[in-house]
Specification:
Elements (H helix, E strand, L loop, with lengths): L3 E5 L15 H12 L4 E5 L4 H11 L5 E6 L3 E7 L4
Parallel strand pairs: 1-2, 2-3
Antiparallel strand pairs: 3-4
Pfam families: Cas_csx3
Organism: Candidatus Magnetominusculus xianensis
Protein name: CRISPR-associated protein Csx3
Length: 84
């Protein structure tokens, strides 16, 4: 059974106050490490659109299901590769 993993995008760059494009590879390594393989992943938190898009691309083929969650939109399914 897949585990649900929540990744707060803002936590990836919290010590810098703003995400830096020059650190994208580090952010993606962190995201992939936190997400694991075959889990349901929820991306949330403040962050630039480019970081969310890069995260979604990096998690395709690793996550079973990817969801974006915000107080405004609620949960938005990005992809679902579960056999159910």
């Amino acid at each position: 059974m897949a585990e649900t993993v929540i990744i707060d995008i803002e936590s990836l760059y919290a010590s810098a106050d703003t995400a830096k494009l020059s650190n994208i590879e580090d952010y993606i390594r962190q995201i992939i490490g936190i997400a694991g393989n075959g889990n349901d992943v929820v991306l949330t938190g403040a962050g630039p659109v480019w970081l969310y898009l890069k995260a979604a691309h990096a998690l395709h083929g690793k996550a079973r299901k990817l969801i974006y969650s915000s107080p405004v939109t609620g949960n938005v399914l990005i992809f679902d590769h579960s056999p159910d």
